[in-house]
Amino acid sequence: MRWLLLLALVLGLSACRSRPGVDEDMAPQSLQAQVLDGGTAGQANAGEVAPWDVKGRLLPVETHIGEAFTYELVFTHAKEQRFELVAPRELEQFEVLEQSRQRQDGANGSVTTYRLKMSAFELGTLTLPQLVFELTAPGVSQSVAVPGMKVDVRPTLPQNAEDEGAGLYDYRAPIEVPIRSWTLVLILLGVLAAGLLGWAVVKWLRRPRPETVAVKPLAPLDLRTREALDKLKAENLPARGQVKDFYFRLSEIIRGYLGERYGFEALECTSSELFDSLRKRHTAGLPEDKLMRFVSESDMVKYARAEASSESCEASLAFGYELVDTTYTPPAPPTPSSPSAPDHAPGTRVS
Question: Is the entire prediction scored with pTM above 0.70?
Answer without folding.
Answer: no
